[in-house]
């Protein structure tokens, strides 16, 4: 997105949820790692296609997308994003995206682009 600050803000019209991989204690008092929702935030969502898709060097079986959000200091590549739904074996499940790269656009600390790959259930 290369618009004015006001235009960029208006395009942040998709609700995404950041998730963290955390250690929790289960019912049997064992420590286990699991993904937990961290923060819901507004984002602009864009699937890569055409020239952008091939320039990114991704295989066709992978779904690559970019989420643009307001700048935040509390995001890193160890997190993932939950956005949208998909049907798998006649069940509706959340779409989950692995964060592959985070870009502070022009180092201005106003907006960030988060490049992601969709994780498909096994």
Automatic annotation (TrEMBL):
Keywords: Plasmid
Gene3D superfamilies noted in UniProt: Bacteriophage SPP1 head-tail adaptor protein (2.40.10.270)
Highest taxon in the source lineage: Bacteria
InterPro entries according to UniProt: Phage_SPP1_head-tail_adaptor (IPR008767), SSP1_head-tail_sf (IPR038666)
This protein's name: Head-tail adaptor protein
Biological source species: Clostridium kluyveri (strain NBRC 12016)
Source species taxonomy: Bacteria, Bacillati, Bacillota, Clostridia, Eubacteriales
């Amino acid at each position: 997105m290369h618009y004015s600050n006001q235009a960029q803000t208006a395009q942040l019209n998709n609700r995404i949820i950041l998730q963290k991989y955390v250690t929790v204690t289960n019912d049997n008092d064992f420590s286990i790692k699991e993904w937990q929702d961290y923060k819901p935030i507004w984002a602009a969502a864009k699937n890569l296609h055409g020239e952008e898709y091939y320039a990114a060097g991704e295989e066709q079986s992978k779904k690559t997308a970019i989420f643009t959000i307001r700048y935040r200091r509390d995001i890193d590549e160890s997190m993932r994003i939950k956005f949208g739904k998909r049907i798998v074996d006649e069940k509706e499940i959340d779409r989950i995206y692995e964060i592959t790269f985070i870009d502070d656009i022009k180092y201005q600390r106003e907006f960030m682009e988060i490049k992601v790959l969709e994780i498909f259930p096994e």
